Amino acid sequence: MFSVARRLKSVENALNHRLASGEPGNVWGDYRALELQNKRLGLVGLGRIGGHVSGIARAIGMQVAAYDPYVGNDRFESLGVQRAESLEALLGESDVVSLHLPLNDQTHKLMNAQRFAQMKEGAVFINVSRGGHVDEAALADALDSGKLFGAGLDVTDPEPPLAGNPLLGRHNVVITPHVASATLVGKRRLVLHALEQVLQTLRGERPPHLINPEVWDAVHARWKNARG
After folding, report:
1. Is the N or the C terminus of the chain less surrounded, counting Cβ atoms within 10 Å?
2. Residue range 19-52, pLDDT digits in tens
3. φ and ψ of 122, to 5 deg
4. Do residues 137 and 108 touch, judged by C-beta distance below 8 A?
5. pLDDT tens, 189-201?
6. To the nearest 10°, the Cα dihedral for 181, 184, 187, 192?
7. What is the DSSP letter of 134?
8. Among 6, 2, 24, which Cα is nearest to 15's?
9. Distance, CA of 151 to CA of 174 (rounded, Å)
10. How far apart are CA 166 and CA 143, in angstroms?
């Protein structure tokens, strides 16, 4: 969100070109960026990550709203986030839209041509969830038409993006290769969490992040019989 709003990609390219060529230029005058303070951030999903992002956004002076029909009002109130009654309302009122939701049949290609058309003129689109949430051709069209100011993507469909992906090489699109969590601390945390859940399973305790929770009862019963 910060990189797209401040157009870091384009301003870096312009600076490198001027330094390499020796051409004069007015960087300050040519620079076009968005100031995020007092802008409205719309979160699609207010789970653990969406909630954390809301705190960061509020700390820099953004107004935050979210659409998440699976989260109660208490969570919205505790985070200081306004509840949007529909996805359409959230898209139409947000200066920045950021996706924080799981990928399933209901959310596949959630952001399509119709949804991008519902966004505000000049808005920023962010996807750090799953590439399958987005119709990338529709996103490219929204950027080409000037509907969107820019986009920031940590995920694509497929990953890595194919050479002909229409979003590559754009000055107003920042794409990172799904490495948002890959700090030194983040990598260690992921390994420790995985090991802890293996140990929990071996102890007969239910791990908190099961991918297929429906099999737990049967697995747990076999584990108890084996120990007995």
Report:
1. C
2. 778 887 777 777 789 999 999 999 999 999 999 9
3. 80, 20
4. no
5. 999 999 999 999 8
6. -130
7. B
8. 24
9. 6
10. 10
Beta-carbon contacts of 1 under 8 Å, excluding residues fewer than 6 positions away, are 36, 41, 96, 98, 124, 126, 152
Residue 78: band (very low, low, confident or very high) from pLDDT cuts 50, 70, 90: very high
The residue whose two tokens read 């992921």 is 190
The pLDDT value given to residue 195:
96
Supply the pLDDT for residue 228.
63
Burial of 172 (0-12, 13-18, 19+ CB in 10 A): middle
Claim: this prediction has a pTM higher than 0.85: yes
What pLDDT is stored for residue 124 in this prediction?
A: 98
User: Among candidates 95, 167, 164, which has minimal Cα distance to 135?
Assistant: 167
Q: Which residues have a catalytic role annotated?
A: 130, 159, 178
Token pair for 57:
């956004």
